[in-house]
Amino acid sequence: MLETTEDINQLIMEDDWMMNILKTAQKLNLPDWWICAGFIRSKIWDQLHGFQVRTPLADIDVIYFDPNNPEKHKEREFEKKLIDMAPSIPWSVKNQARMHLLSGFSPYSSSVEGIAKFPETVTALGAKLDEEGNVVFVAPWGIEDVLQMEVRPTSYYATEKKGVYEKRIASKNWQAKWPKLKIFNADGILLNV
């Protein structure tokens, strides 16, 4: 049963595929790096749905924070290195020091602040390995929504950016993959009754 962040850490540690991905990303030695979003959310939802086969992911989101090298081409260089190490993984690398430009926010101070500004609370999750190889987990909006399978906007997307959130949840069609989900619009109204 999943109830705590320790349970989520254990779930990740027991998954060889996830641990290999984390170990591969760790080899880049990126500053303030995390693997986030669907990598963790999908694993939790698969577990809560009792799936025996992993739901395929469109990409593996590796983020880092380096304000001294915000050029997009650096991200492509890191993606190429990851592809060379693990070519079967759909890597996506983003420097959170420049992502505020795409999202329309003030500059971020860290990768965790970038994670906190993801559109959905259930996506605002990150994991990495510490120097001893232990899983470190972060959830700026907590884990209640992801464990309750309730999709809601983060506060940043519940007001002036609510259109972005609502387009995103419509395009993701998560409920087709995970039928137990409860999806709420930006006004807190349950959409799938």
List the helices and strands and how they pair.
Layout: H1 5-13, H2 16-26, E1 34-36, H3 38-49, E2 60-64, H4 72-85, E3 91-95, H5 96-103, H6 111-116, E4 126-129, E5 135-138, H7 144-148, E6 150-151, H8 162-172, H9 174-177, E7 182-183
Parallel strand pairs: 2-3, 6-7
Antiparallel strand pairs: 1-2, 1-4, 4-5
Descriptive tags:
single chain; 193 residues; alpha/beta; five-stranded mixed sheet; 7 strands
Structural class: alpha/beta
Distance between the termini: 26 Å
Mean pLDDT, rounded to whole units?
95
From N to C, what is the helix and strand string?
Answer: HHEHEHEHHEEHEHHE
Kindly estimate the percentage of residues that lie in beta strands according to DSSP.
5-15%
Largest sheet: 5 strands, mixed
Number of E-state strands: 7
The outline comes out as globular
What is the CA-based Rg, rounded? Answer: 16 Å
Number of helices, counting only DSSP H or I runs of 4 residues or more: 9
Plain-language structure description:
The chain has helices at residues 5-13, 16-26, 38-49, 72-85, 96-103, 111-116, 144-148, 162-172, 174-177, and strands at 34-36, 60-64, 91-95, 126-129, 135-138, 150-151, 182-183. The protein has 193 residues and is α/β, with parallel strands linked by helices. The protein is globular, with a radius of gyration of 16 Å. The two termini are 26 Å apart. The model has no long low-confidence stretch (mean pLDDT 95).
